[in-house]
């Protein structure tokens, strides 16, 4: 007999629903009810509905650090969705100081002009850039105002970055690409829930810029993403450039452990250690991994943690073949 799933409780949740008090800003998802808000578009043009900080996966903390995302947890009552969720741990790209954030960062945002359109609206899912080491889906970077006025449901997402999202140990537990699998989890959430926001789950376009553009193209190639979207728009980023390709990823994982003071040749031992390191220290040290390299023949290989070609362990995998070979097969 299965146990009752853990239901999240927090101060962001309201009391159980009073149907007489139901408002258009309340939407039901597979995990529970959300209450968003109606906002005015920048520059005029009317209003739109905003739902921020929506969890699309379980918090990837503790023993889930570095691993594939798990399904989101249900909640009781009504969850307020008027503030963005925490950004994933990262350093400011200009000051190299740790930004406020949390490992519990797998949240998305939904913006729509009409919750109950006569015909379901096209959906666009945006994947942010940042070299797989910085960025978020928050609207201070990517506001929804332009797209929602064109009758599009816009979804923006966070995903794990740098070592937390792209550490590769070449093991069944940590084959790499956790950050890309976060994106897949977000697409699955969209497929399951977007109709309740006025969107058409059969008319989803994935788009992104820079690392988000390369991620978008990788979703076209990945068997894990098959059937989750209809169109893709990769902008200013492709998976064939060196910045999106692995450079001895397993060795770099062990270099990270060494830089943190842990010398080992055993992948499981390294995993146990890295899962115990405070996230602030991990984020501080990870960018310096490339500095220990003896030879860097291309500056973009200085991104220490990027998408990888995974070993096939017979389980779901994001990518087990070089993107260049995949593209040649699709000709």
TrEMBL record:
Keyword Disulfide bond found: yes
Alphabetical keyword list: Disulfide bond, Glycoprotein, Hydrolase, Serine esterase
A GO term for molecular function: carboxylic ester hydrolase activity
Family statement: Belongs to the type-B carboxylesterase/lipase family.
Domain Carboxylesterase type B, residue spans: 25-330
Pfam families, per the entry: COesterase (PF00135)
Enzyme's top EC category: hydrolase
UniProt protein name: Carboxylic ester hydrolase
EC number: 3.1.1.-
Domain of life: Eukaryota
Keyword Disulfide bond: yes
Record-linked InterPro entries: AB_hydrolase_fold, CarbesteraseB, Carboxylesterase_B_AS
């Amino acid at each position: 007999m299965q146990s009752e799933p853990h239901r999240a409780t927090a101060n962001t949740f309201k009391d159980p629903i009073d149907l007489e008090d139901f408002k258009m800003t309340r939407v039901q998802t597979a995990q529970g009810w959300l209450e968003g808000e109606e906002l005015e578009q920048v520059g005029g043009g009317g209003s739109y509905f905003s739902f921020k900080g929506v969890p699309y996966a379980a918090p990837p903390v503790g023993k889930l650090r570095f691993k594939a995302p798990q399904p989101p947890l249900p909640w009781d009552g009504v969850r307020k969705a008027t503030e963005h969720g925490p950004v994933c741990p990262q350093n400011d790209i200009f000051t190299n100081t740790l930004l406020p954030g949390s490992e519990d960062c797998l949240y998305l945002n939904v913006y729509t002009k009409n919750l109950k359109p006569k015909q379901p609206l096209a959906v666009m899912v945006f994947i942010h850039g940042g070299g797989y080491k910085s960025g978020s889906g928050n609207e201070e970077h990517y506001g929804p105002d332009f797209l929602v006025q064109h009758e599009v449901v816009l979804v923006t997402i966070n995903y794990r970055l740098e070592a937390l999202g792209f550490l590769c140990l070449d093991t069944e537990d940590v084959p790499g690409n956790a950050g890309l699998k976060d994106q897949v989890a977000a697409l699955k959430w969209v497929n399951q829930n977007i109709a309740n926001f006025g969107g058409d789950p059969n008319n989803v376009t994935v788009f992104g810029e820079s690392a988000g553009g390369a991620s978008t193209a990788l979703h076209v190639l990945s068997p894990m993403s098959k059937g989750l979207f209809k169109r893709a728009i990769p902008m200013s980023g492709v998976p064939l450039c060196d910045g999106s390709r692995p450079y001895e990823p397993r060795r770099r994982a062990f270099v990270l452990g060494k830089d943190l003071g842990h010398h080992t040749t055993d992948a499981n031992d390294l995993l146990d250690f890295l899962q115990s390191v405070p996230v602030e220290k991990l984020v501080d040290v990870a960018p310096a991994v490339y500095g220990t390299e003896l030879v860097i023949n291309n500056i973009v290989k200085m991104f220490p943690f990027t998408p990888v070609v995974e070993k096939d362990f017979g389980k779901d995998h994001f990518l087990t073949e070089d993107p260049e070979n995949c593209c040649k097969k699709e000709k």
